[in-house]
Each structure stands twice: as C-alpha cells, then as structure tokens.
Amino acid sequence: MYIIGNAFASANCRQTEYRIGEDCCPTCPAGMYVKQHCTEFTGTSCTPCTEGTYQDNINGREQCYSCTNCNAGVGLKVKKVCTSTSDALCENLDGYFCIDYNRGGCIAAQRHTVCSPGQYISQRGTADKDTECLQCTDGTYSDGTSSSCKPHTICESVGLKQIQPGSNSTDSECREHDDNTGLVPGIIPGLILVMLAIISAIILTVGRKKISGKC
After folding, report:
1. What sections of 6-82 are H helices per DSSP?
2. Are the C-beta atoms of residues 109 and 76 closer than 8 Å to each other?
3. Which of 23, 32, 125, 201 could form a disulfide with 131 if both were Cys (CB 3.0 to 4.6 A apart)?
C-alpha cells in the first residue's frame, strides 16, 4: 500500500484525478485500487489487486475487477492468463466455435454440429464457424462422419445377390448366390432312376435263380 499525493483542493479534476464528492483525489495506478480516499491533509491510499482480480487503468475504484473465467464447461480455455493489470483472454476448445468476441478474446462458444446418418460433412467446423452438413442424394449413403457420400454397392455387378436395398445411411446388403437351389430339382429324378435300376437288377437276379433251379 502506498500514498498518492493530495489534490483535495482542486475544483476541476484532471485526467490523473478522480472526483470524490465535490473534490478531487489522485488516481491509483493500474494493478491497484483505492484503499482510502484522500483528505484535505492526506493523499489517496492505494493497494495492489488481489489474486483473481485486475485493474487495467488508472482509477479511483474501491475494488478491482474480477478476472474472466475461461470455463471448459461452456467450451472455453485460457488464451492469455489474467494479471493484476489485464484481464484473462479466452479462446474456444477444439470441437467448438466462437459465437461472441470481446477485446480480442472469445466470451461464448458453441459445440460444432455433428452430422447425422444420411448426411455428409460439406464444410468442417473451424474456430469461428460451425460444421455444415448436407443430405446424401438418391443412390448414395453416409454414416455422418464422411466428407462425401458413397454410392450403393450394386450386388449383381460384383457377382452377388442383393438381400437388402441401401438407404441414405447404409449400403446395400449382398450375399453369395445359393448354388444348391438349382440342384435340388435334378437330384430327385436322378435318385428315382438309380432306385429303379437297382430294383430291376434285383428282379433279373431273382428270375435267373428261379430258372436255374428248374433246370
């Protein structure tokens, strides 16, 4: 704490003085505040700003300003720390963009938009601009994390069978052709022919034995 010389008798306050009632007192320097106003016999008593407060100019205030809190909960972080003579400056966290500035710092931020499935990222978010999303066109899809939409797979073009058509957020579902489906109708007649051949052979064998026994 120290004393600034008396200016009590002045009628019109100068730039380096402040008015108290009808009289003037010398101002305190930046980084300090008025502990006790001057009197007719004493000068202004000034004391340094406490931690977490600041005063960025000569002043006649009885307290310092509170430092700005760069709150991570609202998307902000410290760009410049607070000192006794200057306030803190904030900037937006990654994944956020600034929506309000003051004296070279960000005072309000908003989280970047997350594109939904069926949309693609047409413009990625920056420190001062939100992410831009656009809808996928027919025949394409995206899960919302890509910078473009992908065309649906045409199953037949890769030798597969489509079991589920694609949507704007998912690809077509394909599987291999079931080759056994074409064989089933042909197996049954073949088995019948084999069985008939076996039965015919048995009949012929039995007939021959009977003829041989008679002889």
Report:
1. none
2. yes
3. 125
